[in-house]
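Question (not urgent): is this output format expected?
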Amino acid sequence: MLSLGFWLDTVTVSTTVIAPEQFHVVLDAGHGGLDNGACVDGVSEAAINLRIVKILATELQNRNCAVSLTRVDSDSLNSPHARNKKVEDMAKRREKIRSLNPDLVISIHLNTYPLTSVSGLQCFYANETLGSYDYAAAIQNQFNQSGLPIYKTVKPTDFNLVEHSPCPAVLIECGFLTNPRERKLLQNTTYQQILAYNIADAIINQAEHQPKQSAV
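Got this back:
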C-alpha cells in the first residue's frame, strides 16, 4: 500500500479543460527553489506550503472546483541565471495567474514571530481587489469557529503576489513555526488535512454567495 506521503509527492493537477460553470482557484505554495522561506530548528516553510497546497487542491477538486498551481514541485519559477531570482519568481507567478484567469487566488505561507507563544492561522487580503476581504473573512471565521485554538482577525497586505492579483486573492499564514507545538502540528499530515478541509469548505461556502468575478 502506498503511503500518503508518496501520493502527495506524485499528485498532479491538470486544468486543461475548465467548464464555464466551474469555480477556478489558483493555489500558490509560497517560496521554493533556493528560497526555503522561514526556517526554525531545521523545519523549512517551503516544503510544508507545497504539501498543504496539494492536499487543498484535492479537497477543492472533490468539491468540483478547477484548480491550478503556481508551482508543482520544490522548484521556484525563476530561471537559474536570473539576476534577481526572487523578483523573477514573483513576476512569473503573477504572469501565470493572469494567463489562467481564475476566480480566486490562495497563497499559502507559514509565519514566524519573536514571541514563541504566538500561534494560529491568519488570513490577509488584497485591499485593492474587490471580493478579497470577503474570502479572507470567510476562511478566518471558519477557523475561529472550528474549535481549534485560533482567534485572529483578517488584515490587509501589500504582499506583491496578492496585492497585484487580477481577481480576489487571499494570503493564508497557516501557523507559526516559532511556536513549538504548532511547528510540530504543521509537519503532521493529519493536521495539514484539517487545514485544507476547512479552507476548502470556507471557499466553497463563500463562492456560493459571492458572484464570480472575471479577471481582466
